[in-house]
Amino acid sequence: MSNKSIINDYSESLLVHFRRIEELKQSALSYLSVDLNNRQLCDLELLLTRGMYPLNGYLDRRDYEEVLENMSLADGTIWPVPVCLDVEEKIADSLQAGDCLALNDEEGFMLAILTVSDIWQPDKKWEARAVYGTDNPDLHPGVRNLFAQHEWYIGGKLEGISLPIHYDFKELRLTPSETHRLFTINGWRRVMGFHTEAYLHCAHKEMIQQAAREAGASIFLQPVVGLDHPGNLDHYTHVRCYQQIVKKFPRNMISLGLLPLASRLAGPREALWQAIIKKNFGCSHFMVEADHGDPFASNLQLKNFYPAHAAQELVQQYEPLTGIKMIRARKMVYVEDKAQYLPEDEIRPEMNIKHISSGELKRRLENDIEIPSWFSYPEVVAELRKAFPPRSKQGFTIFISGLSGSGKSTLAKVLLVKFMEMRDRPVTLLDGDIVRKNLSSELSFTREHRNLNITRIGFVASEITKNGGIALCAPIAPYEESRRANRELISRYGGYIEIFMATPIEVCEQRDRKGLYAKARAGKIEGFTGISDPYTPPSAPELSIDTTGISPAEAAQEVLLFLEEQGYLR
Ligand code: PPS
Questions:
Q1: At a CB cut-off of 8 Å and minimum separation 6, what does 327 contact?
Q2: Is residue 375 one of the residues assigned to a domain?
Q3: How does pLDDT run across 411-427, given as a tens digit for each residue?
Q4: Which of 120, 199, 257, 500 is least enclosed, having the fewest CB within 10 Å?
Q5: What CATH number does residue 472 fall under?
Q6: 451 in ligand 1 pocket by Cβ < 6 Å?
Q7: Does 555 score more than 70 pLDDT?
Q8: Quick check: 152 pLDDT over 50?
Q9: Atom 19 (ligand 1): residue with closest C-alpha?
């Protein structure tokens, strides 16, 4: 490789000898340091273990520009995706070529020393167009992520002190040298790598097994545990499901290892990058899906960003340079009359096929409905049921928003009593006044402080919901932005029911239980909601309740009926 030291180029890992670690730790006392985020830690781990061979550090500027222009390093070695260390301007300003920078984990534990070769401010629009095919962040989440990263890049060689520390699934965190050794010991000359971030069911198992059989290869199932994906509860459930599904393959045919990858979502380039990484883990074959690496691959609502099969074609085209063979993933479909899975392209019109979509699977889990064994294995379903309990066992948040005097607190109190009476789940009341006294006592009623107050309530409610309780929130919450943030956060952990108290302001003002409207009209309270500060009604609440002509018991009954109908109450 160009202007890079040969010393590390062929070594098994970039971790240095413990004698050198002692020296590095001593010298590092005078080095600048940065704490890496989760994404950067994934890159560092794959660099240190040599999952990203032949890189022995972060790309310098020449290599980076070649990667964008030609999908190769400056010496012509194929490399499709930039791997640079992004840093804040103040770090970039304090460094020059030849300096050393200590790289720490999020707790400040030192993992590696980077000897800086280059510091530059990349043209991110150019990078986005080259790697993703667009520089519009609204069209591509990968571009959005890129633009959200620091503005300066650093390139340079790494000396590793320790791999990032993981406490979970240690036996599955295999490095390339470990997997290669494992394959050699087992006599696996041909190994097909399978990369996944999804839950796997019977159709996947049939697809993987059939492809491996055709290639005469064993299987290395390598799921990604890198960045948490929105909507995913946790990676623990994923890994436990993978541990179950490998038991369904013939013995001595499959091994499981976790890949700490910060996916770029770059479609064909992503697939090619993964192919090189799989080769580095000792695989001879790599299964590529028609929409591999596409940011919208598993999203039924959105059209894929890249053309179908583009990823397969690119990986195949570069086979001579990467040294790993592409295997096309052939989707399998369950044929009821034959009680077996067949490749989708072999299905004839008269065949009776069955399918359960991810949306339907979610519905069945939520409502405790049977999941047939032709679709998934009972052991996998049992893991999913633990992670996604039916609605009747999930925690939920009832978020009541509305003007002062609209009936929020009264409704919340009646619901509190009803839930206490049911004794189904623990209940917590987070009324506006209670929160203002206990959680947000230093906050005023400016837009910024109100939003902060609401997101604090949202955080507490999300913890309650996550742990299976009921959070009853009743603040004014006049702005859409903080209500939306709460919905996004809490829906990940359980139910979220937004109730808009649609009682007209005239009625609220007439009630004026606390005399606040009168004071606001008299100019004695500034920025009073509905009088001198705006209230934006929720755009899509689960329920709207106008308490003008109904009793608190009737309002509460509307909520209880809704909860029952949605499956939260039994
Ligand atoms: S917010 O906007 O959601 O943060 O408000 P919240 O925490 O629910 O607090 C609302 C209660 O504070 C009292 N109060 C005011 N409300 C609105 N605007 C102004 N300027 C204001 N100043 C004090 C008021 O009593 C609200 O209680 P409720 O129960 O809604 O009447």
A1: 192, 211, 214, 215, 285, 286, 287, 288
A2: no
A3: 999 999 999 999 989 99
A4: 120
A5: 3.40.50.300
A6: no
A7: yes
A8: yes
A9: 528
> Are 396 and 473 in the same domain?
yes
Residue 200 domain flag = yes
Beta strands in 183-265 (DSSP E): 191-196, 218-223, 254-256
Pocket probe mutation, ligand 1, options 403, 408, 443, 445, max atoms within 8 Å of Cβ: 445
Asked whether 433 lines ligand 1 (CB < 6 A), one says yes
pLDDT digits (tens, 9 = 90+) for 365-377: 988 999 999 999 9
CATH number at 110 reads 3.10.400.10
Query: Which range among 177-186, 294-303, 322-331, 400-409 shows the weakest confidence by mean pLDDT?
Result: 294-303
Distance 454 CA to ligand 1 centre (A): 11
> What value does the mean pLDDT take over residues 155-161?
97
Distance (Å) from CA 463 to ligand 1 centroid: 24
Residue 494, beta-bridge partner list: none
Distance in angstroms (rounded) separating the CA atoms of residues 551 and 337: 57
- In order of 117, 283, 515, the CA distances from 9 in angstroms are 16, 20, 76
Q: Is the model's pLDDT at 6 over the cut of 50?
A: no
The verdict on the CB of residue 273 being under 6 Å from ligand 1 is no
Q: Look at residue 7 in the predicted model and tell me its pLDDT.
A: 52
Tell me the one-letter amino acid at 36. L
Q: Are residues 217 and 276 in the same domain?
A: yes
For residues 208-231, average pLDDT:
86
CB of 519 shorter than 6 A to ligand 1: no
Residue 220 falls inside a structural domain? yes
- Tell me, in angstroms, the distance from the centre of ligand 1 to residue 432's CA: 7
Q: Which of 107, 133, 160 represents a domain boundary (last residue)?
A: 160
Our measurement of the distance from residue 172's CA atom to the centroid of its chain's CA atoms, rounded to an integer in Å, reads 20
Q: Grade residue 449 by pLDDT with cuts at 50, 70 and 90.
A: very high
Burial of 45: CB neighbours in 10 Å, binned 0-12, 13-18, 19+ = buried
Tens of pLDDT, residues 314-352: 999 999 999 999 999 999 999 999 999 999 999 999 999
Both 298 and 183 in one domain: the answer is: yes
Residue 279 near ligand 1, beta carbon < 6 Å = no
Q: Are residues 523 and 400 in the same domain?
A: yes
> Which of 434, 457, 476 gets mutated to test ligand 1 (max ligand atoms within 8 A of its CB)?
476
Which residue, 333, 357, 381, sits at the end of a domain?
Answer: 333
Stretch 204-224: mean pLDDT, rounded? 97
Are 399 and 432 within one domain? yes
Identify whether residues 405 and 492 lie together within a single domain: yes
Q: Which atom of ligand 1 is nearest to the CA of 475?
A: 8
437 with 294, same domain: the answer is: no
Q: Does residue 540 share a domain with residue 466?
A: yes
Q: What atom in ligand 1 is closest to the CA of residue 409?
A: 29
Residue 408 CA to residue 415 CA, distance in Å, equals 11
Cβ of 58 below 6 Å from ligand 1: no
Report yes or no on 186 lying in a domain. Answer: yes
- Number of domains comprising the chain: 3
Decide whether any atom of ligand 1 lies within 6 Å of the 432 Cβ: yes
- Give me the CATH number covering residue 315: 3.40.50.620
Q: Is the CB of 458 under 6 A from ligand 1?
A: no
Percent of all residues in the chain with a pLDDT value above 90, rounded to a whole number: 91
Domain that holds residue 326: 170-333
With a 6 A CB cut-off, is 529 part of the ligand 1 pocket? yes
Question: For residue 150, what are the CA distances in angstroms to 7, 81, 87, 170, 295?
Answer: 30, 17, 5, 31, 22
Measured distance CA(472)–CA(407) in Å, rounded = 14
